Amino acid sequence: MSNSKYEAVPSEPPPYTAPVTGAPAKNPRPLPPLDLPALNMLKGKRVILASASPRRRQLLAQIGLTNIEIIPSTAPEDIPKESITPFEYVLQTATQKATHVYSKEINNETRGEPALIIAADTIVVSHMGEILEKPRNEREHIAMLTLLRNWPTHKVYTAVVAMTPLESAIAPGYAMETSVEETVVTFDKMVTDELILAYVKTREGADKAGGYGIQGIGSILIEKIEGTQDNVVGLPLRATLRCIEKAMTHDESVDGFENSLEVE
Predict the structure, then answer these.
(1) Contact of 187 with 147, CB cutoff 8 Å
(2) One digit per residue, pLDDT tens: the chain, 264 residues?
(3) Which of 12, 93, 162, 228 is the most buried (most CB within 10 A)?
(4) Cα separation of 182 and 228, whole Å?
(5) Catalytically active residues, by annotation
């Protein structure tokens, strides 16, 4: 015999995403950070992003690196593009950024040495292999986007460098892990000159390699991509996390063994 004062027991549990109470929380708690050994080792320590890009900072926050210092590299980016491949150029530029900030901060008597330095560089490469960086003025910005529209498929490369100092005095005194990610981007051939001009006027792409931001209004220029979108934004998270894990768990004993073999 049923009793009306008791509610019926549901036959199945509520969906995983269902709120615990009837009304959704007004201020939901942020998701907990990734519980990974390499990231846990960085808690309470100096982590430096050698870039002023707010997009890279936001992407790092997604994996739990929220308390990071922003110390952009001031080293001149004067690596000659003509004699090396775009892959080599972007990797050398990112490595130069990381080592420049490392040399400035490794003996910081006030804040102490950093536990990790992350640097990155992003370039857009046209169908002819020309490296397109940030447009210098409005005319160049329009010409850049028109080129990408007329020859719609291009490539975006982002190089990531993770550096951490070693406890031993073994040269060079740090562990470095690098990665270069490639994404193929296809512009929409139907993009009009009027749309290009209107987009340039927003200035969203003025500070971005290739002159567009795929994470913002610039997405209306894109037909499709092959690869990861965060690579086009400026920091491939999967590759970045892999570099961090390798750098933070670097086995110094292997370096010592290899150096002993070289001496012999």
Answers:
(1) no
(2) 555 554 555 555 555 455 555 555 566 777 788 899 999 999 999 999 999 999 999 999 999 999 999 999 999 888 998 889 999 999 999 999 999 999 999 999 999 999 999 999 999 999 999 999 899 999 999 999 999 999 999 999 999 999 999 987 566 789 999 999 999 999 999 999 999 999 999 999 999 999 999 999 999 999 999 999 999 999 999 999 999 999 999 876 555 544 444 444
(3) 162
(4) 8
(5) 121
